[in-house]
Each structure stands twice: as structure tokens, then as C-alpha cells.
Design brief:
This protein is mainly alpha-helical. It contains 12 helices and 5 strands. The strands form 2 sheets. The chain has a 3-stranded mixed β-sheet, with no helix packed on it. It starts with a strand and ends with a helix.
């Protein structure tokens, strides 16, 4: 028995399920952006139509204001507790500082030490909880320039909300994206731009899943299946790495295998340096490798080429 998912031509009930010739056919449900009511419903449908479009404000300024307020309240409580400790110490009431039980019995003031500590405990819990949430907000990724442009252009063209309420998209530095999938770099955007330039029926059939074709009827909106684009990018990167490995080996073989001289070795070293630089530049452009990862991969690449130079010299 095989499972076949049939794309709908319009909104369909996902519960529709029937069996025909031992094949289970599931009619999926796709939200058509233009079919949603205008205003917030249509904006929500658009933002949820693509993971990269899930862009919202982080309110980092307000988080900072609240944290600063809680921090100052804790500082005031800390100062009050310290002043009370010093006052008891200067008045020869050190027994209160050495015994919590005695302090609770003898200290009958409106702001006893136990009341101050209880206020500190409550305020610290509130501060720590909000601090952890603020840390989570900071850990969110910023939307890429292409995603921000796509969302902002759609909003300014369609005007789904009144001007005052859709102005949040102008706070570019305060926007966060909920998407945290595959590593994103400029090379991915370049590939999607090429697909957009070459847009035709064949491109849409290969790189657009059936359910994505039913998300909009707007000819200016293009959705590409992320997994299919990732596979294309993987193939391209594999081809680039293959070329960067084969070309220098062939070049150094030609230089060292038939002419065993200092000049040929020097030329082979030049080829090694040039291709190592090309490899490093390529990896920094097509991947999001960190500095230490880029350094390690370049060092390994250079070491492989050095081994080839020495082997070719021995063969000559």
C-alpha cells in the first residue's frame, strides 16, 4: 500500500480521506492568502505562508527599560538591607545579625530584616525570570535582507493595515524572525534570485511543491520549496569543492611530474597558494562557516595539496 498526497486546487478539508485501488489519497489544506479577509487575517496568512516571513518586533528597548527598573528596585532593597545591618552593628545589636530567630523576635519595626529579605526574594525572582526571557529574545535571529525586503514590500504595496499599525515594519533593527532552520548565506539568496530570473513552468515544477502553488494567485509572489533548493545548493557546492580539489592536483602534476626542478616546485607552491585562497574565499561565500571552522578547513585543504606536491616530486 502506498501513500499519495494530492494537492488541492482550493481550500479543502484535510479530513477528506478515501481509498481507491489500495491507494490512500489525502487532500491537503492550503491557506490561500488572497482568500483571507483583508486586514490582520490576510497579513497573518501572508506571514505564515513562508517560514522566513515570520518577522515580528522584539521590543528590545522595552525589555531594557523594564530590566533597568527592576535592577534599580533591587539596588534600593540591597542598600536598605545594608544600612539596617550596619545600624544594628553600630548599636551593639550584633546578636540579631548572628541569629535569625532572635532577629525576628526583637526586630518589631515596620521594615524588619525578614520583610526586607522577603521583598528581595520576590523581586529577585521577578528579575531573574524576566532576565532569562530577555536572553531568549536576544538569541533570536535577525531576518535576512531579502526576507525583510519581501515582507516590507508586500506590506507597503498591499497595505493590509492602517498606516499607524503597520509601521512596525519600519523598526528594522528591532525585528526578529522565528525561523531558525538551515544556515542562510548570500549564496542561497543568489540561487533563489537566479531561479526567479529563470522562472518558467519547468522551474516551478521542479522547485515548487504542489501545495506551495496554491498559496497565492499573485503572479509577483514566488514560493520555492526549501528542501529542493537546499539540494540544488548542495549539488553546486559539491561541484565547486570537487573542481577546487581536481584542478590544483592536475596543475601541480603537470608542473612537477615531468620537470623535477626548483622552478617547477616553486610554480607548484604558487598554485597551492592561489587555490588555497580560492578555497577559503569560496567557503566563506557559500557557507556560514565560523572563523575557526574556516581556518581548519583551509589548513586541511592546504595540507592535502602539500602531500600531492611531495608525492609528485618523488615520482619524478
Amino acid at each position: 500500500m502506498t501513500l499519495k498526497i494530492v494537492p488541492p486546487s482550493k481550500l479543502a478539508n484535510v479530513r477528506l480521506l478515501h481509498q481507491f485501488n489500495n491507494r490512500i489519497t489525502v487532500v491537503t489544506k492550503t491557506w490561500l492568502v488572497e482568500k483571507c479577509p483583508e486586514g490582520y487575517p490576510r497579513l497573518a496568512a501572508f506571514l505564515s505562508s513562508e517560514h522566513n516571513f515570520s518577522i515580528y518586533r522584539g521590543f528590545t528597548y522595552l525589555h531594557s527599560r523594564v530590566l533597568l527598573g527592576l535592577q534599580d528596585q533591587l539596588v534600593a532593597l540591597e542598600r536598605e538591607l545594608d544600612m539596617k545591618d550596619r545600624l544594628d552593628n553600630s548599636n551593639d545589636l550584633t546578636d540579631r545579625l548572628r541569629s535569625r530567630a532572635r532577629d525576628e523576635i526583637e526586630d518589631t519595626g515596620s521594615r524588619s530584616r525578614s520583610i526586607i529579605l522577603n521583598d528581595i526574594r520576590l523581586k529577585l525572582g521577578e528579575y531573574n525570570e524576566f532576565l532569562a526571557k530577555a536572553k531568549d529574545i536576544v538569541s533570536f535571529h535577525k531576518p535576512s535582507g531579502r526576507d525583510y525586503s519581501s515582507v516590507s514590500n508586500w506590506m507597503w504595496i498591499k497595505n493590509p493595515l492602517v498606516a499607524k499599525e503597520q509601521a512596525f515594519i519600519r523598526h528594522k533593527e528591532d525585528l526578529l524572525t522565528l525561523h531558525s532552520g538551515r544556515e542562510w548565506c548570500g549564496f542561497d539568496g543568489f540561487i533563489e534570485m537566479v531561479l526567479l530570473k529563470l522562472d518558467c513552468r519547468l522551474i516551478r515544477r521542479i522547485f515548487v511543491a504542489p501545495e506551495l502553488r496554491n498559496k497565492t494567485i499573485d503572479g509577483n509572489m514566488h514560493y520555492y520549496t526549501r528542501s529542493r533548493v537546499d539540494k540544488l545548493i548542495g549539488v553546486i557546492i559539491t561541484a565547486i569543492v570537487f573542481v577546487l580539489l581536481v584542478l590544483p592536483v592536475v596543475a601541480m602534476y603537470r608542473l612537477t611530474a615531468f620537470k623535477n626542478s626548483e622552478q617547477s616546485i616553486f610554480h607548484a607552491v604558487g598554485v597551492l597558494v592561489v587555490f588555497t585562497l580560492l578555497f577559503s574565499a569560496t567557503m566563506s561565500l557559500v557557507t556560514k562557516a565560523q572563523r575557526h571552522e574556516l581556518f581548519a578547513s583551509s589548513a586541511a585543504y592546504c595540507a592535502v595539496l602539500v602531500v600531492f606536491i611531495s608525492n609528485f616530486g618523488n615520482l619524478a
